[in-house]
Amino acid sequence: MANEEDDPIIQEIDVFLARSLLEKLYLFQYPIRPASMTYDDVTHLSAKIKPKQQKVELEMAIDTLNPNYCRSKGEQIALNVDGTCTDETSTYSSKLMDKQTFCSSQAASNVSRYAAAVYKKGELHLTPLHGILQLRPSFTYLDKADAKHREREAANEGGDSSQDEAEDDVKQITVRFSRPETEQARQRRVQSYEFLQKRQAEEHWVHLHYYGLKDSRSEHERQYLFSQGHGLAENTELIKSPSEYLMMLMPPSVEEEIDKPVAPSNVLSMAQLRTLPLADQIKILMKNVKVMPFANLMSLLGSGTDSTAVLRCIQQVAMLVQGNWVVKSDVLYPKDTSSPHSGVPAEVLCRGRDFVMWKFTQDRWVVRKEVAAVTKLCPEDVKDFLEHMSVARINKGWEFMLPYDEDFVKKHPDIVQRQHMLWMGIQAKLEKVYNLLKEHLTPKKQESQSAHPLLVSGEQRVNMAKAKVRQKYGQLEKEFQKQKADMKSNDTSAKMDVSNICIKEEPVSDEEPMDTSAYEGMNNGIVNGLHAEEDSTDSLNSHFPGGCVDRVAQELKAFVSSTFKKQFVLTLSELKRLFNLHLASLPPGHTLFSGISDKMLQDMVLDTGCKQILVPFPPQTAASPDELKVYALWEAGDTYDQHRQVLLEIFSKNYRVRRNVIQSQLSQECGEDLNKQEVDRVLKDCCVSYGGMWYLK
Q1: What is the model's pTM?
Q2: Could you tell me which residues belong to the region Disordered (predicted)?
Q3: 375 Cβ partners below 8 Å, 6+ apart?
């Protein structure tokens, strides 16, 4: 209290915050000015700046008429820099050192606590500084003088040599191919001094206009240092509580944060992770963990997270394998990247890893040699694939890392079905790329069973089989009793309403009895929305309820029509693959998920104006029956319909034809000479070329 009484308040000054020059005001700190240098000499001064680096270069005039100026020394410096000849590139055009260059450097990295103040009529106006730059003399002209000196010496040495000297001897050079750059090497290169210097040199200079102290433009700009409005709305930053004002004057020290160890750039804490969008959280988690059950993922995302949204996001970055989610290959190996071991591009790595993931959808065990033999990748890449999702077992192979998640499969059958369809599409692509045999496509049940080295006696096996039979018998008995009770309740309800039912009598054919098993078998034998049996006699009318027939037929017809308009010729195998991919893109509960048999799909193809082309394939072909069935759009409604029909007739007689035969046949049947472009158009629609021969797609 005594100190406050001894130090009374003499005057109160209003403080205003000026915003007009915010992020535009710099403070230049000049060195001690020589007597011969005039800062206000505008005629001989220029300036340029690099805004991103906050780097400034100023050229200031030197008063050569000042008695303190040494003229002989100035002439000598100009002669050393520019030589005897003067042109536009000369540094000193007057053959005299008449200017000095100053280059800036940042005086402080954080200038948020500094401001420029102007006091006027009892008011203090503050403008925050955007940067504080210290200007120091630049001696680049000395480097230019040294370069000129070396050029003169080289010219003198070259002049002394004989004019009859033979040409330079041919020198052997060694060509080296650089290895693909890894991510760690790229980060080291980006942080290197040479790279930073190169980046700084790439930024272009922006030339500035200099205005003197007494110039009208300078006077106009100085007015922006005053606050334009004195209202409280313009200076809300200055209306603070005492504690907030004290915090602004003396902010907490950041030294403790700087001293803390910095985490790697690829590591995020859970607190940082939960600030990101849900899709990014799931992508980062799956990219780091590689394999995860859905329950674990929900626990990591925190309470209150919508499981439906998580399911929607997880399908974009992961695939379902044995009820667990495995990160997709293109997430781990983005486009335009390569293997750190072999330099193989990302596309090939993704195919190889997809093959490993697909193998684990078929069996819990995978053999490394088999994967390497099929994918033709180096052992290091194959080992990386397997380590992502499995564990090595001695004398057994690689076992999938996590147990089968039966709970997720039971709770989300629609997700399981959609993922199964996606795997069928991937399997079809892998079959074409790797020419997979049947032994690769079927899971090895016997080998997986024999992989267990446990010795079980015959009596133990019998007891185990009896226990399984008793368990299954009890479950079947309960289900049978439940179905029997449901049937009785349905019968009683039917008898109560039988008086209100009018039965329409129709003649019944003895040759074609009524099929009552259509609805019972609706959910049996369906693989990815398609019935596996070839000789299915189901039709749309007997397979679906009456109101659903038209919707299913319309959806199926729309798919078939659009598909054949894009690809005029398709095998049944390829059509089924495209249909499975179409089903995978549909929302859950769509009408096409009810089950479409091969027979129904083929009938719809014929109903949409397509024809089956009986291509005479060789008897020793290894193609499947579905690949031997070829369908083509007979009339597309364009000018090339007749040409395509002639081409299809040609392939109904031979499965491969030469181009000259096709062109002559087209000219003969169509009655006109077709040019090369027209023939190429017809061949591109229906055929592919291999080894000089043309085949149907």
Answers
A1: 0.34
A2: 146-169
A3: 351, 352, 355, 382, 434
